[in-house]
Prior knowledge:
Blueprint lengths: L1 E5 L3 H10 L4 E3 L2 H5 L5 H12 L4 E5 L5 H12 L5 E6 L2 H10 L6 E6 L2 H10 L3 E5 L1 H5 L5 H14 L7 E5 L4 H9 L4 E4 L1 H6 L4 H24 L1
Parallel strand pairs: 1-2, 1-8, 2-3, 3-4, 4-5, 5-6, 6-7, 7-8
The structure holds erythose-4-phosphate (E4P).
Amino acid sequence: MKLFVDTASLDEVKRASEWGLVDGVTTNPSLIARENVPYRKRVLEICDVVGPGKAVSAECIEPEFDKMLAEARDIAKWHPNIHVKVPLTPAGVEVMARLSPQGVRFNCTLIFSLPQALLAAKAGAKFLSIFVGRVDDMGSGEAFKTVEDAVDMVNTYEFPNQPEVLVASVRSPLQIVEAVRVGAQITTAPFKILEELFHHPLTDAGIERFAKDYQEALAHAARNA
Length: 225
Ligand code: E4P
């Protein structure tokens, strides 16, 4: 399973890359807006930090087909790591259908239902970004049913670019656990959620206990020497 970090902060991308387990980065206009840096510049900095072969998603802003097509063509040329993000709209689907046969890799974003995931898969998306947090925020409890169905769909049928289901809009480690359970190929999560994955009170207690036992054994050996 691939783990992406959902951020436009260079510090967070650096830190997550140092752990050696981050397979990619997802950005979006809201995340970039917080950083107060030009979009292209920041995306290129992220590509350099993560290194070759890691997927870096950069999103189109233009909603209309013609402008989105031009924007997607441009973004695709920024760096070999780039996956162009387009929303699940008729324009986004048409842009993917037009450019994916030419080798442009797409992350289709803002997917909330299985029919939407099907359209993105058929249009040639590489990643199907299903937003679970925004659905769970509404208290519907159905978010992972869509993810599970989409995983079944991509494992059952052939699509142009062998799409992978990407669990996005993650708010808690529990949602990552759920993503693993239903067999999602990728999860993207904010840096602070990835950090939380390390923690367990029994790990902390175990380290403390091992250190204490070891020190006691050393003291005992010294007394008996
Ligand atoms: C995914 O690619 C998106 O950037 C992200 O997960 C959106 O999450 P949000 O619902 O927290 O904005």
